[in-house]
Backbone:
């Protein structure tokens, strides 16, 4: 545990040194490229979040304002900790505030914290394409589809802890023949993106619980 603590303490300095060396060698174009990468990931996460809120409004008549009032503190906690599993009890409480019965919340939220990693899969797909562009590789649409499918499948069951997606990303990139030397740049901004995608993942868990509640009520009425 002490060795792990030392590594975590030294990691920011090591990443800074590696990024400084890379910028000196490649120029400030690298910083422009990383800004585009971060912006693309944040835009994709924002669109996914908007899609989740649209589902809640269409199927459960929950407005975005009501959703934020009930789950705002939960999403802020997920953003600050970057751990969807750690905030699971708070997520269950937020689901109950949104009108989800306790039995549904206790089933859907833990399952979603393990399997619902749409935000992580989106981030990894953009990161793979970014690494391929850094290496001068132009993947075909079929290769992009294969990479996205592989990342979605690999994100299912991934632990809800910070940094796990990097290990999955390196493994998939290596198997696809994409060089991972540019991973140093991704590591420099991974913490910020990890916080954002964790909030989106938790939002997906809440929407899944709300959707199951709505579907159950409609089935009960029909019967």
Residues:
């Amino acid at each position: 545990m002490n060795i792990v603590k030392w590594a975590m303490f030294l990691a920011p300095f090591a990443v800074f040194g590696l990024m400084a060396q890379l910028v000196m060698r490649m120029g400030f174009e690298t910083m422009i490229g990383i800004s585009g990468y971060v912006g693309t990931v944040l835009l994709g996460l924002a669109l996914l979040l908007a899609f989740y809120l649209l589902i809640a409004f269409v199927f459960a008549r929950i407005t975005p304002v009501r959703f934020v009032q009930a789950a705002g503190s939960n999403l802020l906690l997920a953003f600050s900790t970057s751990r969807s599993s750690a905030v699971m009890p708070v997520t269950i409480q937020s689901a109950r505030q949104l009108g989800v019965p306790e039995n549904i919340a206790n089933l859907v939220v833990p399952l979603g914290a393990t399997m619902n990693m749409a935000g992580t899969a989106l981030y990894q797909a953009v990161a793979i394409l970014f690494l391929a562009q850094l290496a001068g590789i132009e993947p075909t649409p079929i290769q992009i589809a294969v990479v996205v499918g592989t990342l979605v499948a690999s994100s299912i069951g991934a632990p809800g802890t910070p940094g796990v997606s990097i290990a999955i990303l390196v493994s998939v990139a290596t198997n696809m023949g994409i060089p991972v030397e540019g991973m140093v740049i991704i590591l420099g901004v991974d913490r910020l993106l990890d916080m954002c995608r964790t909030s989106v993942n938790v939002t997906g868990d809440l929407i899944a619980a709300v959707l199951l509640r709505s579907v159950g009520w409609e089935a009960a009425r029909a019967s």
User: Anything to note?
Assistant: Residues 183-222 form the longest helix (40 residues).
